[in-house]
Amino acid sequence: xxxxxxxxxxxxxxxxxxxxxxxxxxxxxxxxxxxxxxxxxxxxxxxxxxxxxxxxxxxxxxxxxxxxxxxxxxxxxxxxxxxxxxxxxxxxxxxxxxxxxxxxxxxxxxxxxxxxxxxxxxxxxxxxxxxxxxxxxxxxxxxxxxxxxxxxxxxxxxxxxxxxxxxxxxxxxxxxxxxxxxxxxxxxxxxxxxxxxxxxxxxxxxxxxxxxxxxxxxxxxxxxxxxxxxxxxxxxxxxxxxxxxxxxxxxxxxxxxxxxxxxxxxxxxxxxxxxxxxxxxxxxxxxxxx
Length: 290
Known about the structure:
Elements (H helix, E strand, L loop, with lengths): L5 E6 L7 E2 L3 E6 L5 E2 L6 E2 H14 L3 E5 L24 H12 L8 H5 L8 E2 L3 E2 L12 H8 L18 H14 L17 E4 L2 H7 L12 H10 L13 H16 L13 H6 L8
Parallel strand pairs: 1-6, 6-9
Antiparallel strand pairs: 1-3, 2-5, 3-4, 7-8
């Protein structure tokens, strides 16, 4: 497996508005403690895109984990959006569709996509707005999401469900607008081959980092510096020595950057048994789910 010199983790947000307190970006380099990029700054999604584009231009050897889903379920129905003539055939086509329908939405939001008559049939939204093609229960899951539930590696919520604190569908839609812009500039594993040098994107769950650091399921959020330093130590990382309260988004980013560094050289995360070429093109995979 190729070596990286830097490991970045992006804790993301799909909330409305220009600047998001839920966005945090951290980098782990060498054997040092992970550090925040622009500590105390309230990020916009446009600024995050600018940081990623700068990494691409510089050719940094950085593995970048983002905490949103790159795609919706496809394998179960052989389509992202059954009964919609414009349903794309692969992930780049999905990102392009979201961008086309949400192009006038500010701050990389995606409300216009969700308001589209064909799109809304597939989602559960606030106010009791449940599309007629949203299945009973929790909603459709990607193969990686089914697998991690079956093996108890993690517990995700369907990206078609946009209701509740655990939903990441809105964040994923706004993230797809960024991935659309980064297409051809930074490869995404496993959609693209791993480049010999330069940056590489991977989808992550910050809860995987928390579990690897010994936090119990359902209690993966860290909100104080002492607990963060203990979790970092379990991943072989030096402490950040932050005292007192800390944002859980900041803690997620710092811990996930250290976690990426700790597992990137292992073979298993890069070769999950259930990952196929077709899934790589349509649904993607979450790095660290094996």
